[in-house]
Amino acid sequence: MENLTESAPNPEFLALNCIDLSSSDVNLSVSLLKQACLDTGFFYIVNHGITEEFMDEVFAQSKRLFDLPLSDKMKLLRNENHRGYTPILDELLDPENQIRVGDYKEGYYIGIEGKNPGDDSDGERQFYGPNVLPAEDLLPGWSKIMKKFHTQALEVARVVARLIAIALGLEKDFFDKPEMLGEPIAILRLLHYEGQISDPAKGIFGAGAHTDYGLITLLATDENLGLQICKDKDAKPQIWKYVAPLKGAFVVNLGDMLERWSNCIFKSTLHRVLITGQDRYSIAFFVEPNPDCLVECLPTCKSDENPPKFLPIRCGTYLSQRYKDTHVDLETYKK
Description:
- By secondary structure, the chain is of the alpha+beta class.
- The protein has a single domain (4-328), classed as Sandwich (Jelly Rolls).
- The chain contains 9 helices and 14 strands.
- The strands form 3 sheets. Strands 1-2-10-7-12-5-4-3 form an 8-stranded mixed sheet. The protein has a 4-stranded antiparallel sheet with strand order 6-11-8-9.
- The protein is globular, with a radius of gyration of 19 Å.
């Protein structure tokens, strides 16, 4: 991490709790998690079961993909089911401040294969379906590695969700139900931020300020700074602090659906990415419940004095609107 102060002079860091998933002290883990969820909505997890060597391999394979010529990557362009390649400026997360200029990042979506689990019809449903994957002769072994990582990351997410359930006064397996994480939407997204220097005053960001959409996000990053958090999105001015990269760890943050479930006891925190001239790679794993799941205030999070703040909403409905609001219309690429 020697390059941190060079790339961002005098960076100010936010201290985050670190949760050891190999610990036998569940009460300590839940306490650290709950404190983090009440404070920043972000925390580290370590000893999660995915080896550093394998994570390094996933990063190497991600770089192989993004090093391909743009013409090859555009043949893998994302489809309407959000599978495949997303070019630079494809996503616009903060239109108020980005002034119609999208994020200076390229990405790649990989989801759960096949039709909706439990669906006996012949058709596919949104958020499930075949992945758009590079041919084996183009990137040998690439798809197998990404599928293996997807499977392992989903198991890590389920472990974290059990700690969250306990922290909210629920049964440990609350989120394991088929309509939640038993049959979830789980999206792996590889990300590459090119060396375009971010300038908030000009609306130029690696990723504009946003909250994530689902239950939780697992994020692995390289050693370069970029991720910033704003604990109080309503503050004037907003105060942004960096999250330090931690080798082999996941940074976990809460999504909008957990904020809805918890009636704002746990909040989905505003975050963004600033790039200071160097390429940066990260791997995000977005974990959402089944699209048919009705997200409504949990019984442990409401009372006469604290009634539900949100109307119930289907997960699929909410996600569809958020993707539509933030991504370029695919018809644009056909013109």
